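ASSEMBLY PREDICTION REQUEST
Request ID: AP-0331
Submitted by: J.K., bench scientist
Number of chains: two
Total residues: 827
Priority: normal
Notes: Please return the full assembly, not individual chains.
Input sequences:
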Amino acid sequence: MKKLSARRRHPLAALVVLLLALAATGGLYAAFAPAEKAQADTSAQSLAIDEGKKLFAVGCSSCHGLNGQGTSDGPSLVGVGSAAVDFQVGTGRMPAQQPGAQVPRKKVIYSQSEIDQLAAFVASLGPGPVVPKPEQYNPSTDPAKNAADISKGGELFRTNCAQCHNFAGQGGALTNGKYAPSLEGVDPKHIYEAMQTGPQNMPSFPDTTMPEEQKRQIVAFVRHTENDEPNPGGLTLGSLGPVTEGLFGWIFGLGVLIVVAIWVAAHTTKAKKS
Amino acid sequence: MSTTSGTSTGATTPSSTRAKPASKWEAAADWTDGRLGIYSLAKANLRKIFPDHWSFMLGEICLYTFIIIILTGVYLTLFFKPSMAETVYTGSYVPLDGIRMSEAYASTMNISFEVRGGLLIRQIHHWAAIVFVAAMLVHMMRVFFTGAFRKPREINWLFGAGLLFLGMFDGFMGYSLPDDLLSGTGIRFMEGAILAVPIVGTYLEMFLYGGEFPGQDIVPRFFTIHVLLIPGIMLGLLVAHLILVFYHKHTQFAGPGRKEENVVGMPLMPVYMAKAGGFFFLVFGVIAAVSAIATVNPIWSYGPYRPDQVSTDAQPDWYMGFSEGLIRVMPGWEISVWGGHTLNLGVFIPLMVFPLVLAVIWLYPFLEAWVTGDKREHHIADRPRNAPVRTAFGAAWISLYLVLLIGGGNDLIATHLHLSINSITYFVRVSFFLLPVIVFIITKRWCLGLQRRDKEKVLHGRESGVIKRLPHGEFVEVHADLSQADKFTLTAHEQPQPIELPAEVDENGVARKVGRLAKARAKLSEGFFGDSGQIAKPTAEEHAEITSGHGHH
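STATUS: Completed
Returned structure:
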């Protein structure tokens, strides 16, 4: 102690004390501070957000703003969640080609990994619905359970979806050029995300009003009617109800019969044709 | 042509006193005739003549589809349960397994998936119904445009109109029976229409449905009306319709040797019997082929009816489509009268216009008869061009009907042509009033143009396609003179003169009183047969002058 005490007025003493204090503070901080924060900077999620931000700046920001805050041309994306991005970009609806009553489904221009990066960036803007996991929308592997799901899903579909999407998911008209699109060939994941996020003119069906299990049943029903079911009656005529049936009946029913009548009338036992 | 039916036949003479019958068949025929007296009936009618034209077979299509509908309908009644009692589905169609539904729906599912040939028979029944009503409409148009409704066929025109009206409603009730999501929506629509009737609407609704919608009664009641009441009346009307066709004899188009007093064509037996019989099987074949190829009314896709569910594309079958159009394009007007009584004009007005749309075309023959004052019989059918006002009226009516059909299918037109449903609705609202007028004007002028062309053909011959060069260098096309028969055919039609009002003052200089109705009639008559209504057909003198060598050709 004498040695320390003797040197306490040494010109460098203050510096040493300062270094020691800093080391102690830093050491204590390192020991007690939450570890995750420090690790986050190098994780894949952070990289995805960074990459997503770059993609967003190029492909989306002209309408949605550089930080996804929205402009006069596009809504704010704060809080829409990764499920909304995965649906809109994954079905080709976004980036939009032109303004109009509704943005149509078209060719997908981003790869799935790019879509994931965009989704990660938009999800980082605020909490929202997340992309569902395969077990949430895939059909049950148990055939009996799946059959029950399809029948239950059909009932739910007719109650919640058919009034716009038609009884067979063929879509239908809404006001002023808007429409409910056909569900033909839509990925089960995207059907699930659409229910969860309510894109464009569709209402959303969050888990609080429609539990996960019911969404899965609806997806099972749509998948069944679109893909698995052979139509027992022959041609479906678009599954559009009596309008196409009437058109078909006039053309291929009465139309053919009139042709037959002309044929019968033209073949007769007349001695000479008049 | 019916020959005069003999009054004294072999019916009273026992055949045994005569020489032995030549064959077993003759003996059998003799036996039957002795008891039923069918010989004179057969002799009078088997040689009945029918003129040959394809458009005269449209009525046959109606008759045969009606027979097909009855045959298949009988099969369906064997398995259908007209009950709204609730049951749980356990049939073979997996997507509806364990779903609650009515017995009516469950039994229709049973017909479609379990009964042998059930789905095909169901589809034949439904497709035949769709074609039946379409054929009736086209048949009616044929009769309308050729003026075949004129005396003595006015009553038969009304019988036909009745058949069309009943056919439409029987079709509506038929597709309402399975109690699926689509048909239930149709019955709900009907409930709304009945409720919109002022004062008695609610009482009528309670009476028909046996309480609040949907109740338990509507399907059994519709079933009885669909399979018994309406088909019974239709069968009666149909027989009356055919008897009158037989009695009046068929109309024919003008031509050499065809007069108001005769019918030129083929005898019923054997020619027409073979043709008509063969045509029945052709009709059945076409309907069966259509039914085997294309689905109609896929009730399994619609699901059972539940009042809390609805699907888009909820339209009626096509023949009710114009009523759907009326409802869809009508603004939703609603007024309150006498302190709280709601008058739902948005539904009530279309409900009232609905029968008017049909009545207008059905009553036209009587309007025409009144305007022309024609009391003579007509057995020669008009060519549409030679009755321009009538043809224009018919075309205007068709345009109105089609516009309403577009209104009824506005959502599908919107989605498939990428249009706004609102724009289509506004288009239909304007067109409902405007388009018939435009179509009337265009069709009338078109007919007049065709009349001018006929006149040109009679007077100057038809274009031969041979180009001749004259000595001075001019090119002319050689016109070939028509045959005598063609000239006759083109000029056979009558051209009535407009009615003239009596002079304003009589011989004593006293002003005559002319009623408003008479004035209106004269005005209409002028429109029908005045200078703007028809082109004077060429006369023999005109023709003689042109062909005498002094003319240009």
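REVIEWER COMMENTS: Residues 44-123 of chain A form a domain with the Cytochrome Bc1 Complex; Chain D, domain 2 fold (CATH 1.10.760.10).
SIGN-OFF: pending second reviewer
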